[in-house]
Amino acid sequence: MSRKPGAPATSGHRARKRFGQHFLADIGVVRAIVDAIAPRDGQHIVEIGPGLAALTDALLERIDAIQAVEIDRDLAARLRKRHPQDRLGLHEGDALAFDFAAVLPAEAAAAGERLRIVGNLPYNISSPLLVRLLDYRAIVHDQHFMLQKEVVDRIVAAPRSGDYGRLSVLMQAFHHCDSLFDVPPEAFDPPPRVDSAVVRMTVRRDREAEDPAPLQQVLAVAFGQRRKMLRGTLLPWLAQRGVSAEGIAPTARAEEIDVDTWRALAARVAAAR
């Protein structure tokens, strides 16, 4: 079977702002992303937002088949003409509402196989989508995403830095997070007004039993007024619930607390419910 589709068709489709469309057009960047993913036949790869198929085509040069989720009807129609269903299993819909568990065959799940999720994500949905994907981490091995560089910087940020916040803690609590490389605006058509970056997020298997909800609740309180000392925000909230503030200095601010301390606190909040 040939695995060499033609060059991505870039004409005849106007990027839609409501979908946050910026199509990756630099073949060097595409190859770098695929090299980072290192796909192999038999893996369950799901692409979010295949768009004009730049990444899709490159993946299908390496492996027999992938699945994809596309919200744009016109692009979905083009993709169906470009690749047969047995190579590109296309699901038309919104990734924010998509059931990712449905694309992993029951026998594969029973055998411990997991999804690998990839994509050039629309910037307007990236953070809520990352949070939603936490619900599927038991069936996900890793994620490779192109995101706004500012978002990637936040995901991988260390405590006591300006980028460290709710997203940093929540993503690092459940993934090994690595910023792989930056991508300039001119790599896209149309070019966005910001730099982008590619991030790898590998699910931490030893934390599958942890519920993200208590951690999200604690972080919302603590980072809601991040410039304030925690004695005026988080500590009263904990006291009202009879939860120990062990490990939290009253004069500390939220960005000074490391991920493991936040996890330990979230576990105490969960136990007190």
Automatic annotation (TrEMBL):
Query: What does the UniProt keyword field contain?
Result: Cytoplasm, Methyltransferase, RNA-binding, rRNA processing, S-adenosyl-L-methionine, Transferase
Reaction catalysis annotation: adenosine(1518)/adenosine(1519) in 16S rRNA + 4 S-adenosyl-L-methionine = N(6)-dimethyladenosine(1518)/N(6)-dimethyladenosine(1519) in 16S rRNA + 4 S-adenosyl-L-homocysteine + 4 H(+)
Q: Please indicate if the UniProt record lists Iron-sulfur as a keyword.
A: no
The identity of this protein, by name, is: Ribosomal RNA small subunit methyltransferase A
Q: Name one GO cellular component term.
A: cytosol
Protein task:
Specifically dimethylates two adjacent adenosines (A1518 and A1519) in the loop of a conserved hairpin near the 3'-end of 16S rRNA in the 30S particle. May play a critical role in biogenesis of 30S subunits.
Specify the Ribosomal RNA adenine methylase transferase N-terminal domain's residue ranges.
29-205
Family membership, please give it: Belongs to the class I-like SAM-binding methyltransferase superfamily. rRNA adenine N(6)-methyltransferase family. RsmA subfamily.
Do you know which SMART domains this protein is assigned to?
rADc
Q: What is its EC number?
A: 2.1.1.182
In this chain, S-adenosyl-L-methionine is annotated as bound at 22, 24, 49, 70, 94, 120
Q: Name one GO molecular function term.
A: RNA binding
State the coiled-coil residue ranges. Answer: none
Name of the gene encoding the protein in the UniProt record: rsmA
Which locations, inside or outside the cell, does it occupy? Cytoplasm
